[in-house]
Design goal:
single chain, about 95% helix, mainly alpha, 3 helices, about 0% strand
Length: about 80
């Protein structure tokens, strides 16, 4: 999963759920106008969650690649 893939997911969500995406955006704008500190915390928490998911999938793919390469080397050394 790359950053481009995450952006593509966001765009797909916007195009398939336009009214919901606009409502979420309007809610964040209203929250930012009323209480900017809470809005910043909300955006920061969501951003940290997205980054955690991104790094977890990246780490998972890396470990799966390593496991696959290890298995391939084991099979090659047996033949």
């Amino acid at each position: 999963m790359t950053i481009y893939h995450l952006l593509q997911l966001g765009k797909n969500f916007y195009y398939t759920h336009t009214y919901l995406a606009l409502a979420i955006l309007a809610g964040l704008v209203i929250l930012a106008l009323i209480n900017p500190k809470a809005a910043f915390k909300t955006v920061a928490i969501v951003l940290l969650f997205v980054l955690a998911v991104y790094f977890a999938t990246l780490l998972g793919k890396t470990s799966l690649t390593g496991i696959g390469n290890k298995q391939q080397m084991i099979n090659q050394s047996r033949h």
